Every structure is written in C-alpha cells, then in structure tokens.
Amino acid sequence: MKKTLTTKLGAVAFSLLVLAASSCKKDAVSANNNSKALKTQSLGKYDNGFFLINEGWYGHGTGSVSFYSFATGTKQDSIFTKENPGKTLDPATSTLEYGTIFSNKLFLVSKVGGPVVVTDPYSLVELGRIAAVGGNNWQAFVGIDATKGLLSSASGIYPFNLSTYTTGAKLTSVTGSVGDMIKSGNYIFVLSQSKGVVVLNVADYSVAKTISGMVVAFTKTPDGSVWAAGGTSLIKINPGTLAVTTIALPFTANSTWFAWHPGSITASTQNNTVYIANNGTFSGATTIYRYIDGNAASLTSPFITIPAGKELYGSGIGYVAQTNQLVVTTVKSGFGANYGVNDLYFYDLNGTQVGDLAYSGYYFPAIPVFH
C-alpha cells in the first residue's frame, strides 16, 4: 500500500526490482544543529524528540516506530518491539499508516488487517490494542475526550472506547472510506473519499455540513481554523460558524485515496500559517508551499524545494513546535533500491534547510508524530 505511482508499482514489483536488499541499518549521522537538548526535566525515555511512524516494507515485514532525539540528533529504530518483548505489529502484510498522541497516549493505526495499538508515549509500553484481523482496514484516529475517540477505516467510522480499547457500532452518518480526522470546537471534521470534508457534531455524530471536492486534510491553526484542500483550492473552515474561506492554490492538490496515507498538510502552532506539499497524483512532492493567513502572495512560489533527486513519502511534512521547524521525510526518486535511501530534512521557518539525517533501510515513512 505505497503512496506514489512509483510506490504502488513498487508494492507489486518491488521484490523483482530489488534482488539484494541492503540491511535496514540505522545511520548514526547527526542532524547537526538540531542536536539540542530542549528538556530540563524528563517525563520518560521518549519525551525529548518526536516519533516517525513507518509503514514497513509491505509483504516483507511490519511497520515500525522510530524516535528522533533532540539531544543527540540521531534516531532509534523499532522502539515499539524493543519496549514490548514478544509483542508485534504483525501481520507483515499490514501497513502501519497513522499515529497521533492524545490524552497522554500514543495511538498506532494499521491498515490491511493490522492492529490498532495504544501505548504510553514516554515509555512506548503497550496499554491495549485491537487485535489484527483480516478484513480490517483502519486508517486514522481522533480523540473526543478522555474516554472516547473515533477510528476511521476503509468501511466507515467506529467509536473507540479509550478505557476498554474496544469499538462500538459503526456510525451511520458517514459511509465508505474515511481517512484523516480532526476535532475543533464542537465539531469533528472527517475526510470522506466520496463526499469530501464531512463535519460531524461532537454531541451525536450527526452531519452538520459537507464540503465536496476536498481530498487533502487536515491541519489546525492556533485560531482553531481547520484547513483542507482539493483541486486548486485551499480552504479555511471556521470552527464556530463552519463558514468556508477559499484560497486559490497555484497547483492542483491531488488525492491520496488510491493507497491512502495521511494528508501532506501541516500548520504552525505559533501563528496562522499552513504548509502544504505539491504532491503528484499519488504523492512524491518535490516542493512545499506556505500560506500565511490573509496573505495571498505568500502562495506565489514554493516555500521549500527539496534537494534534487529526492521526493516526499507518506504525509511527508510536520511542524516541530519545540524547535519551530518543519521536518520533511523523503526517499530517493525512482524504483526498487531507491526506497532504501532516506533523508529526514529540517527547515527553519525562512525555508532554509538546517539539518539532514540520512539513513538506509526500507522504512517507507508514513507520518511524523509530535508530543
């Protein structure tokens, strides 16, 4: 379940194209000036940095969780299995596609028959799970309050009890494949393959509004506004009135539904600025645009052009509040062994590259996750 046209070809032909895979070794190269100890008091082993949720090499092994340390500028790999001996994210035919932290828990969501696993975000010790079952196709999670959330899937949305780690009856208000979800104010915003953005009332999950044509979602700016995109439009949704403001994009925001992955869109937590990748039909962006709310000229040209020969993979972008930077996950453009060439780039908010952690192995990064 790979993301770009090349990755979908890779999902079918990868074994034929790569006759001798390089070992999935961790590269201990530092990301240089990102090696800064930001914490003065530790909450646990995995507090001073962020997570990289990796799909894994489909059919050859499960997804994995890596941790990038601000203190050392390096990453640790396979930390879930290291912290939970005997527990796995099997089957190898599943794809670990989504992660998020909510209510002091890290949620790991797998597609294609894989499990949903809940862990402590500071120790990675497992707290509970929905077991892997063939036919399941979980896609994302959103928290509602301390005791409940929602899980999206290729067949709709299910309530998720955060005390028992069990699902309830599927919602009737939204049908078909649902991907990204986010909560703001009294509403939950979900991305439907067939209907675009569907806004649900928190109280009863009834539909409050539908915004068609949207295919990339979601991020939220400090004012609570929710952002999505589709076609040549970036939209801003008021979390109180649900009024929509449309901003023209200088490129086409393409769908990720063929092999779903989280949307390539993020926002600063310090000001109302949105960052969105200019993906091809199935991902593979080489440029990232910035929209400063109210400033149409800020979208005139790319904010970031990643180094030649590299392209975004998975969600591909995330905002790091602790360092006020953007992180970008890439692979080498092309087929086969190119997927084993990874770079984790760091950019300041002037669009200048300030760090690069290069590493080898067939990780297929899905999404960065931040405390």
Written description of the protein model:
Keywords: Signal. InterPro entries: DUF5074 (IPR031815), Quino_amine_DH_bsu (IPR011044), WD40/YVTN_repeat-like_dom_sf (IPR015943). It holds the Pfam family DUF5074. This is DUF5074 domain-containing protein. With 371 residues, the protein is mainly β. Helix content is 5%, strand content 45%. The protein has a four-stranded antiparallel sheet. Strands 4-5-6-7 form a four-stranded antiparallel sheet, with no helix packed on it. A four-stranded antiparallel sheet has the order 8-9-10-11, with no helix packed on it.
Features:
371 residues, mainly beta, 4-stranded antiparallel beta sheet, 2 helices, globular, signal, DUF5074 domain-containing protein, DUF5074, Quino_amine_DH_bsu, WD40/YVTN_repeat-like_dom_sf
How widely separated are the two ends?
A: 27 Å
- Major sheet details: 4 strands, antiparallel
Q: What is the global morphology?
A: globular
Low-confidence stretches: 1-30
Number of strands: 27
For the largest sheet, list the strands in their spatial order.
3-2-1-27
Give me the number of helical elements.
2
Structural class: mainly beta
Order of helices and strands: HEEEHEEEEEEEEEEEEEEEEEEEEEEEE
Percentage of residues in helical conformation: under 10%
Rounded radius of gyration (Å): 19 Å
Task: Provide mean pLDDT, rounded.
Answer: 90
Strand content: over 45%
Q: How do the helices and strands line up, and which of them pair or pack?
A:
Layout: H1 5-17, E1 49-54, E2 64-69, E3 75-76, H2 79-83, E4 95-102, E5 105-111, E6 116-119, E7 126-130, E8 138-145, E9 148-153, E10 156-161, E11 166-167, E12 178-184, E13 187-192, E14 196-201, E15 207-211, E16 216-220, E17 226-237, E18 244-253, E19 265-267, E20 273-277, E21 287-292, E22 304-305, E23 310-320, E24 325-332, E25 341-347, E26 353-360, E27 365-370
Antiparallel strand pairs: 1-2, 1-27, 2-3, 4-5, 5-6, 6-7, 8-9, 9-10, 10-11, 12-13, 13-14, 14-15, 16-17, 17-18, 19-20, 20-21, 21-22, 23-24, 24-25, 25-26
